[in-house]
């Protein structure tokens, strides 16, 4: 099996409601269909890179190529773990965890998106909690960072709930307009204080060298 040679492919994170796993071709196709059905209202853009503005054919191709590119470029010193999120057997979104020189910095960053039909149910918090458990409990991270535009209230609310603290602001251009992005940082101590989601990890031990550990 390919996972014998690239064991990250066998990694699984589970909460009481969700499974996060590396998407196979069927999962990736399902992710594309979720994106087609909508990730946010068309009049707003919660992402710094407006990938959801693409025409359907370009969006599908770009989403698949992004996943393949991240796997092709994986190294223990620079990795991006892209996981699909499954709720009640249905793919509902994507959760990423990434780092550079993790063995030295012990810092990770995260990003995610969730189909509009599945929002408002606490799934966004639970899927972020799952990768934070992987980072802190599984990989021994010291800190986790993330960022969201000030108009992305849902993402900022998830970060606050999980214990992140403000870590400065920066300006960017999205859809030709200036936006303010809020950076956030979560320490190991704050993660431990705000833990409410039980998470189990399968397949981590053989994957550790691929994370630089």
UniProtKB/TrEMBL annotation:
It comes from the Bacteria. The keyword Ligase does not apply. It holds the Pfam family Acetyltransf_3. GO terms for cellular component: cytoplasm. Residues 18-186 form the N-acetyltransferase domain. SUPFAM superfamilies: Acyl-CoA N-acyltransferases (Nat). Keywords: Transferase. InterPro entries: Acyl_CoA_acyltransferase (IPR016181), GNAT_dom (IPR000182), Ribosomal_N-acetyltransferase (IPR051908). PANTHER family: RIBOSOMAL-PROTEIN-SERINE ACETYLTRANSFERASE. This is GNAT family N-acetyltransferase. It comes from Saccharomonospora piscinae.
């Amino acid at each position: 099996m390919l996972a014998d040679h690239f064991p990250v492919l066998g990694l699984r994170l589970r909460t009481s409601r969700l499974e996060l796993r590396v998407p196979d071709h069927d999962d990736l196709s399902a992710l594309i269909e979720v994106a087609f059905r909508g990730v946010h209202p068309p009049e707003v853009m919660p992402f710094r890179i407006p990938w959801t503005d693409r025409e359907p054919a370009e969006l599908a191709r770009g989403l698949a190529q992004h996943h393949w590119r991240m796997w092709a470029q994986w190294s223990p010193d620079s990795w991006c773990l892209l996981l699909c999120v499954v709720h009640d057997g249905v793919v509902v979104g994507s959760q990423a965890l990434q780092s550079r020189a993790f063995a030295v910095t012990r810092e990770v960053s995260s990003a995610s998106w969730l189909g509009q039909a599945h929002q408002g149910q606490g799934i966004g918090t639970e899927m972020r909690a799952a990768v934070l458990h992987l980072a802190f409990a599984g990989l021994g991270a010291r800190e986790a960072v993330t960022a969201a535009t000030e108009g992305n209230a849902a993402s900022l609310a998830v970060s606050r709930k999980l214990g992140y603290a403000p870590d400065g602001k920066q300006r960017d251009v999205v859809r030709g307009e200036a936006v303010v992005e809020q950076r956030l940082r979560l320490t190991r101590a704050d993660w431990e204080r705000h833990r409410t989601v039980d998470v189990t990890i399968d397949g981590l031990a053989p994957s550790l060298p691929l994370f630089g550990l």
